[in-house]
Amino acid sequence: MHRLLLPCLVIACVVGSSCSKTNDNKPNGNAAKSSASEQNSPSLALRLDSTKYFFEGTLGDKSRVNAELSLTSTAIDGRYRYYAGSRALSLSGTVQADLTVQMTERDNLGRGGWSEDENQTISGRFIGKLDKEKGTISGTWTSKDGKKSLPFFLQAVGNFAMLKDSKLDVSVDYPIFAQPHFAAVNDTLSTIAKRTFKESYATVDTTRKEYEQEPEFKERAAMISEHSATNIEFASDKIVSLSILSDSYMGGAHGMYGYDGLTWKMTNGVPTRFKLTDVFREDTDFRAQISNLLINKLKKESASSVVDGSITSFVDELRNETLAYTVHPSGLTFYFNPYHVASYAEGAFEIHIPWKSLQSVLREDALKQFFPAP
Questions:
Q1: What is the CATH number of the domain that holds 107?
Q2: Across the strands, what pairs with 246?
Q3: Distance separating alpha carbons of residues 254 and 251, to the nearest angstrom
Q4: CA 159/CA 182 separation, integer angstroms
Q5: Domain count, the chain
Q6: How many helices (H) and strands (E) does the chain have?
Q7: Best CA proximity match to 335, nearest among 70, 108, 2
Q8: pTM, whole model, 2 decimals?
Q9: Which of 119, 245, 278, 315 is 20 to 30 Å apart from 150, CA to CA?
């Protein structure tokens, strides 16, 4: 669980499951086996022009991972996550002329990258080679203390496109998967992105014109903005789960931002909305159990409206599927936006609930139906 704090005037467009490393995230084994993505995914050539890519791969012989990385001719940055991990870890580093890649792994996501001493958050380092034509990055991961080293392999299986206006501060970014079985997902994401961009453009254009008519607020007109950015939390031929961060500034004392979740179950390549009852037994009190876990974790995070007793349950929101959440092989992640469980100043909250803590209310073999073994 983590509080997510973002600047309060013009919000940085950073998507995410903001994240920290847990013991479950630690890799095992000594040799990276070829992943399914390495063997079966179509080759996606890499462009070093700030394009963001989605990778799947392995670290060691047991740990499966995915990553989102932006690449230029000199730099690489983004995040990656273990299938067994509750949160992502940030990556940042360099790309050299011979395509040698060096990345530092940090446990600092969820704090906006802020830390009194960034060195305290370093948890490992990657050194490897980038193959632009094959769309791969491979090499060696080393622990912070240098005592443990494991091979890693990443295969690009998707990239991100951005809709952006040249005059108004409006943008929408969304993923495009390379695998054929995601064709319907790609079509749906493109449709959603175009609709979102059209709506954002209209909102920003109207608001900006209104401010331009008011002399005392005219200087704020150029600051009016709205953005939407997407993270792939998990994707397979069985399920796709995305987190979306929307941020805007409409001329007030501060900007506003909010997280949402979008999860589809896949049947023969056709996406349909995922519901909690797809994995939980309806003859149980699973909503009450999830609610209790959320309340207890939010109390530990000092979410003021939970601490003071204003909010005591999320059962109704869980029944109506109005809480924002994403799914992952390791569990469910819920997102609580500003003003939902605390003041704006306290930030948003991200709470991860492991499947293992809800084992008694899960449908038999439900997780095997959607997720590979971590």
A1: 2.40.128.120
A2: 228, 258
A3: 8
A4: 13
A5: 1
A6: 6, 17
A7: 2
A8: 0.85
A9: 119
